[in-house]
């Protein structure tokens, strides 16, 4: 067995989101020197179960193995049939297991990718469940390149989100959304803090907002809240100047939502 190859694959598996639990199985299979082999991995996301099959293939010219792809079967608690999608490994920035789950939930993920010319570029990825490849069985993976004009930070600024007032919480919020997470956020409504959930929507250059029950909130309603909040902030600033008081409580650090939105796969 090629030890350097094993160390490389071990790290590749780990940083693609499968942890260190597959290390011994990986070594055992490489020692057998079979032309190809698979490893199995299971993850729970709330009430959903995602089963991944990792595919490895040996070079025909050397003792080097390659981690080529992994296939995910997503079993949702409210569906009898599993949703399937294969994700391919590349040298730039692999789609992690959690990002794969988020994509299969219908959300968008931001990644640095390498095109056919070997050039690095940034793009948002989102599965189109209405289009499938008859050859691979995969759903089409749409790309919204950096030139498409979607600016997540600018889009968030249109909403009365408390976390945006703190640089660290703002950074955490944006990074989480770029990974495709349905993210908790604190909306300011008439002086009242309301917990809602948000996700990136690059195709329409906006964000999707959900209430505490993961029911969609219209963008028009959100913009009206932003306008109302702007007026309220102006009044508060005047009051602060008069009273010389300050608020000592910082915004709560965003945490990943435990509840999950129903996958768009139901529209298939």
UniProtKB/TrEMBL annotation:
Biased amino acid composition, Polar residues: 235-245
Species name: Flavobacterium shii
Residue ranges of the region described as Disordered: 218-268
Name of the protein in its database record: DUF3945 domain-containing protein
Higher taxonomy: Bacteria, Pseudomonadati, Bacteroidota, Flavobacteriia, Flavobacteriales
Bias (Basic residues) ranges: 257-268
């Amino acid at each position: 067995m090629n030890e350097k190859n094993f160390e490389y694959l071990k790290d590749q598996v780990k940083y693609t989101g499968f942890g260190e639990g597959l290390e011994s199985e990986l070594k055992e299979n490489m020692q057998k020197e079979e032309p190809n082999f698979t490893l199995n991995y299971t993850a729970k996301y709330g009430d959903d179960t995602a089963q991944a099959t990792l595919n490895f293939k040996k070079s025909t010219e050397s003792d080097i193995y390659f981690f080529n792809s992994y296939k995910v079967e997503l079993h949702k608690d409210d569906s009898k049939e599993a949703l399937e999608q294969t994700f391919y490994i590349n040298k730039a920035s692999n789609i992690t297991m959690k990002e794969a789950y988020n994509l299969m939930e219908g959300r968008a993920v931001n990644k640095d990718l390498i095109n056919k010319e070997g050039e690095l570029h940034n793009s948002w990825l989102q599965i189109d469940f209405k289009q499938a490849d008859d050859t691979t069985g995969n759903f089409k993976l749409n790309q919204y390149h950096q030139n498409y004009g979607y600016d997540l930070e600018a889009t968030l600024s249109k909403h009365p989100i408390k976390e945006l007032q703190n640089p660290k919480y703002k950074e955490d919020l944006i990074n989480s959304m770029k990974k495709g997470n349905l993210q908790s956020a604190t909306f300011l409504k008439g002086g009242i803090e309301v917990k809602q959930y948000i996700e990136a929507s690059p195709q329409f250059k906006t964000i999707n907002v959900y209430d505490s029950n993961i029911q969609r909130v219209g963008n028009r309603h959100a913009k009206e809240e932003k306008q109302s909040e702007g007026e309220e902030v102006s009044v508060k600033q005047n009051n602060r100047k008069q009273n010389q008081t300050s608020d000592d409580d910082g915004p709560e650090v965003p945490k990943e939502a435990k509840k999950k939105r129903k996958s768009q796969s139901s529209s298939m």
